[in-house]
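Figure 2 data, in text form.
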Amino acid sequence: MVEQVLVVPRTELFGPTHNPHGFGTRNLGFYRDRIARHARFVDRPPAEEDPSLKQIIPYAMVRCGRRVLTLTRLAKQTEKRLHNKMSIGVGGHINPDGGLEGIVERGLRRELEEELHVRAEARIRPVGYINDDSSPVGSVHFGLVFEVLAATEDVSVRETELMEGGFRDAGELPALAERMESWSRFLVDHLGEIVP
Protein backbone atom coordinates (compact mmCIF):
# COMPACT_ATOMS: atom_id res chain seq x y z
CA MET A 1 0.00 0.00 0.00
CA VAL A 2 1.38 3.43 -0.98
CA GLU A 3 1.91 5.91 1.87
CA GLN A 4 -0.22 9.03 1.67
CA VAL A 5 0.96 12.37 3.03
CA LEU A 6 -0.68 15.71 3.83
CA VAL A 7 0.02 18.40 1.23
CA VAL A 8 -1.11 21.89 0.30
CA PRO A 9 -0.66 23.22 -3.24
CA ARG A 10 2.13 25.82 -3.18
CA THR A 11 -0.06 28.56 -4.66
CA GLU A 12 -2.77 27.95 -2.03
CA LEU A 13 -0.21 28.12 0.78
CA PHE A 14 1.81 31.12 -0.37
CA GLY A 15 -0.23 32.86 -3.05
CA PRO A 16 1.00 33.36 -6.62
CA THR A 17 4.17 35.37 -5.92
CA HIS A 18 5.28 35.06 -2.26
CA ASN A 19 7.60 32.25 -1.10
CA PRO A 20 9.07 32.81 2.38
CA HIS A 21 12.62 31.64 3.05
CA GLY A 22 14.06 30.30 6.29
CA PHE A 23 12.46 30.43 9.74
CA GLY A 24 9.69 32.92 10.37
CA THR A 25 7.07 33.81 12.93
CA ARG A 26 5.11 36.49 11.08
CA ASN A 27 1.93 35.24 9.42
CA LEU A 28 2.03 31.90 11.27
CA GLY A 29 -1.72 32.10 11.79
CA PHE A 30 -2.20 32.77 8.07
CA TYR A 31 -0.24 29.65 7.08
CA ARG A 32 -2.02 27.49 9.65
CA ASP A 33 -5.35 28.73 8.25
CA ARG A 34 -4.26 28.00 4.65
CA ILE A 35 -3.27 24.48 5.68
CA ALA A 36 -6.62 23.93 7.44
CA ARG A 37 -8.50 25.14 4.35
CA HIS A 38 -6.51 23.54 1.51
CA ALA A 39 -4.79 20.42 2.85
CA ARG A 40 -5.39 17.06 1.19
CA PHE A 41 -3.72 13.68 1.03
CA VAL A 42 -1.75 12.42 -1.97
CA ASP A 43 0.56 9.47 -2.60
CA ARG A 44 4.02 10.21 -1.23
CA PRO A 45 6.27 9.04 -4.12
CA PRO A 46 5.00 11.59 -6.67
CA ALA A 47 4.76 14.31 -3.98
CA GLU A 48 8.50 13.93 -3.27
CA GLU A 49 9.20 14.98 -6.87
CA ASP A 50 6.54 17.70 -7.24
CA PRO A 51 7.47 21.20 -5.98
CA SER A 52 3.99 22.47 -6.84
CA LEU A 53 2.90 20.64 -3.66
CA LYS A 54 4.18 21.37 -0.17
CA GLN A 55 4.21 18.40 2.21
CA ILE A 56 3.33 19.65 5.69
CA ILE A 57 5.85 18.59 8.34
CA PRO A 58 5.36 19.25 12.07
CA TYR A 59 8.89 19.90 13.40
CA ALA A 60 9.43 19.95 17.18
CA MET A 61 12.38 21.39 19.09
CA VAL A 62 12.62 19.92 22.61
CA ARG A 63 14.23 22.07 25.27
CA CYS A 64 14.62 22.19 29.03
CA GLY A 65 15.45 25.72 30.10
CA ARG A 66 18.36 26.84 27.91
CA ARG A 67 19.34 23.27 27.00
CA VAL A 68 18.17 21.90 23.65
CA LEU A 69 17.84 18.26 22.59
CA THR A 70 20.40 17.72 19.82
CA LEU A 71 20.18 14.67 17.58
CA THR A 72 22.41 13.00 15.00
CA ARG A 73 20.66 11.07 12.24
CA LEU A 74 22.46 7.77 11.60
CA ALA A 75 23.03 6.02 8.26
CA LYS A 76 20.15 3.55 8.75
CA GLN A 77 17.54 6.30 8.32
CA THR A 78 15.41 5.95 5.20
CA GLU A 79 15.93 9.59 4.13
CA LYS A 80 19.43 9.31 2.64
CA ARG A 81 19.67 13.07 2.14
CA LEU A 82 19.81 13.52 5.93
CA HIS A 83 22.32 10.79 6.90
CA ASN A 84 24.87 11.87 9.56
CA LYS A 85 23.33 15.32 9.82
CA MET A 86 22.73 16.87 13.21
CA SER A 87 19.31 18.21 14.12
CA ILE A 88 17.53 20.10 16.87
CA GLY A 89 14.15 19.10 15.46
CA VAL A 90 12.01 15.98 15.39
CA GLY A 91 9.42 15.73 12.67
CA GLY A 92 7.85 13.75 9.90
CA HIS A 93 5.12 13.45 7.34
CA ILE A 94 1.46 13.51 8.29
CA ASN A 95 -0.53 10.45 7.24
CA PRO A 96 -4.33 9.98 7.21
CA ASP A 97 -5.54 9.70 10.81
CA GLY A 98 -9.20 10.53 11.28
CA GLY A 99 -10.48 13.90 10.05
CA LEU A 100 -8.38 16.89 9.02
CA GLU A 101 -9.26 18.95 12.10
CA GLY A 102 -6.30 18.87 14.50
CA ILE A 103 -4.33 16.56 12.21
CA VAL A 104 -1.08 18.56 12.39
CA GLU A 105 -1.00 18.34 16.18
CA ARG A 106 -1.89 14.63 16.08
CA GLY A 107 0.91 14.09 13.58
CA LEU A 108 3.33 15.97 15.83
CA ARG A 109 2.41 13.89 18.88
CA ARG A 110 2.72 10.68 16.87
CA GLU A 111 6.21 11.66 15.66
CA LEU A 112 7.31 12.51 19.21
CA GLU A 113 5.99 9.17 20.49
CA GLU A 114 7.67 7.24 17.66
CA GLU A 115 11.08 8.93 17.91
CA LEU A 116 11.48 9.93 21.58
CA HIS A 117 10.76 8.78 25.12
CA VAL A 118 9.41 12.00 26.69
CA ARG A 119 9.07 11.02 30.34
CA ALA A 120 9.23 14.60 31.60
CA GLU A 121 6.14 16.74 31.91
CA ALA A 122 6.06 18.88 28.77
CA ARG A 123 4.11 21.72 27.17
CA ILE A 124 3.84 22.12 23.39
CA ARG A 125 3.37 25.42 21.60
CA PRO A 126 3.64 26.54 17.95
CA VAL A 127 6.51 29.00 17.43
CA GLY A 128 6.92 29.48 13.67
CA TYR A 129 7.45 27.89 10.29
CA ILE A 130 10.30 26.92 7.97
CA ASN A 131 10.46 27.04 4.20
CA ASP A 132 13.57 26.40 2.10
CA ASP A 133 13.17 26.15 -1.65
CA SER A 134 16.95 26.12 -2.23
CA SER A 135 17.28 22.32 -2.10
CA PRO A 136 15.34 19.41 -3.63
CA VAL A 137 14.17 18.12 -0.23
CA GLY A 138 13.26 21.61 0.99
CA SER A 139 11.35 22.53 -2.15
CA VAL A 140 8.68 19.89 -1.47
CA HIS A 141 8.26 20.42 2.31
CA PHE A 142 6.93 23.13 4.64
CA GLY A 143 7.66 22.92 8.34
CA LEU A 144 5.38 24.02 11.15
CA VAL A 145 7.74 24.51 14.10
CA PHE A 146 6.68 23.63 17.63
CA GLU A 147 8.56 23.99 20.91
CA VAL A 148 8.30 21.13 23.40
CA LEU A 149 9.21 22.65 26.76
CA ALA A 150 10.20 19.80 29.07
CA ALA A 151 10.26 20.23 32.85
CA THR A 152 13.37 17.99 33.12
CA GLU A 153 15.89 16.40 30.75
CA ASP A 154 14.17 13.03 31.09
CA VAL A 155 13.88 12.75 27.29
CA SER A 156 15.75 10.18 25.20
CA VAL A 157 15.89 8.77 21.70
CA ARG A 158 13.57 5.82 21.13
CA GLU A 159 14.93 4.69 17.76
CA THR A 160 18.58 4.32 18.78
CA GLU A 161 19.44 2.55 15.53
CA LEU A 162 18.32 5.67 13.62
CA MET A 163 19.37 8.53 15.91
CA GLU A 164 21.54 9.39 18.88
CA GLY A 165 21.29 12.48 20.99
CA GLY A 166 21.30 14.44 24.23
CA PHE A 167 20.82 17.95 25.61
CA ARG A 168 23.29 20.77 24.89
CA ASP A 169 23.38 24.36 26.04
CA ALA A 170 21.83 26.66 23.43
CA GLY A 171 25.09 28.65 23.37
CA GLU A 172 26.96 25.61 21.98
CA LEU A 173 24.71 25.19 18.96
CA PRO A 174 25.95 27.96 16.62
CA ALA A 175 29.38 26.28 16.49
CA LEU A 176 27.69 23.04 15.33
CA ALA A 177 25.44 24.65 12.73
CA GLU A 178 27.56 23.60 9.74
CA ARG A 179 26.94 19.94 10.64
CA MET A 180 23.18 20.44 10.88
CA GLU A 181 20.39 19.85 8.39
CA SER A 182 19.14 23.08 6.85
CA TRP A 183 15.97 23.37 8.96
CA SER A 184 17.97 23.10 12.18
CA ARG A 185 20.44 25.72 10.91
CA PHE A 186 17.52 28.09 10.42
CA LEU A 187 16.35 27.43 13.98
CA VAL A 188 19.84 27.90 15.44
CA ASP A 189 20.06 31.28 13.71
CA HIS A 190 16.82 32.32 15.45
CA LEU A 191 17.17 30.64 18.85
CA GLY A 192 17.19 34.03 20.52
CA GLU A 193 13.58 34.49 19.44
CA ILE A 194 12.55 31.18 21.05
CA VAL A 195 14.90 30.47 23.97
CA PRO A 196 14.91 33.16 26.70
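Caption note: The longest strand covers residues 53-64.
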